[in-house]
Amino acid sequence: MESHKRILGILYVVSALFQALIMMVLNVFLSTIFTYAASQAEPNDVAVLEMIARLLAWLPAVVIVFFALPSLIAGIALLNNKSWAMTLTLILGCLKLFSFPIGTAVGIYTIWVYAEDQRLARIKAVKN
Predict the structure, then answer these.
(1) Helix 69-79 and helix 85-96: axis angle, to 10°?
(2) Between the CA of residue 6 and those of 3, 75, 86, 87, 110, what are the distances in Å?
(3) Which of 7, 37, 87, 113 is most buried, judged by most C-beta within 10 A?
(4) Residues whose CB is less than 8 angstroms from the CB of residue 46 and which lie 6 or more positions away in sequence, other chains included
(5) Burial class (CB in 10 A: 0-12, 13-18, 19+), 50
(6) Which residue has the higher pLDDT, 41 or 70?
(7) Are 92 and 103 in contact (CB under 8 A)?
């Protein structure tokens, strides 16, 4: 079971770093698009475009803070065998279920690893 936890930890670290990278690229892409659109727009429309661009500039940062950072923390905690790591991973795994197709696979794998870990813990408790 420890090998599955290690694989899960690596999956969470890689997915968090990939998600952060995607959000940074998205931020640069959106900045470029809105800068170009503002240069081509009429003077009355520039203020609206700038307001939308400022609002959308926060989107990647919010995604990184609320999704990528907790995944990174959960992955590192799993790799370091922290007692609370599986609980955090289960919560994040349930959220990842909605991110089809890769997030769904990671979420299902997370739930399976958590269930097996709890089953083995109960068996161990009964033997003692």
Answers:
(1) 140
(2) 5, 9, 11, 15, 12
(3) 113
(4) 38
(5) middle
(6) 70
(7) no
Predicted model pTM: 0.82
CA quadruple 99, 85, 113, 76: dihedral positive or negative?
A: positive
Structure tokens at 25: 């690229």
Q: How far is CA 77 from the centre of its chain?
A: 15
Banded model confidence at residue 42, pLDDT cuts 50, 70, 90 = confident
Q: What is the 3-state secondary structure (H, E, C) of 27-93?
A: HHHHHHHHHHHHHHCCHHHHHHHHHHHHHHHHHHHHHHHHHHHHHHHHHHHHHCCCCCHHHHHHHHH
For residue range 94-122, list pLDDT tens digits in order: 999 998 888 899 999 999 999 998 888 88
φ, ψ of residue 81 in degrees (nearest 5): 55, 45
Contact 71, 15 (CB under 8 A): yes
The token pair that represents 15 in the structure block: 């997915």
Q: How confident is the model at residue 66 (pLDDT cuts 50, 70, 90)?
A: confident
Are 1 and 117 contacting, i.e. CB atoms less than 8 angstroms apart?
A: yes
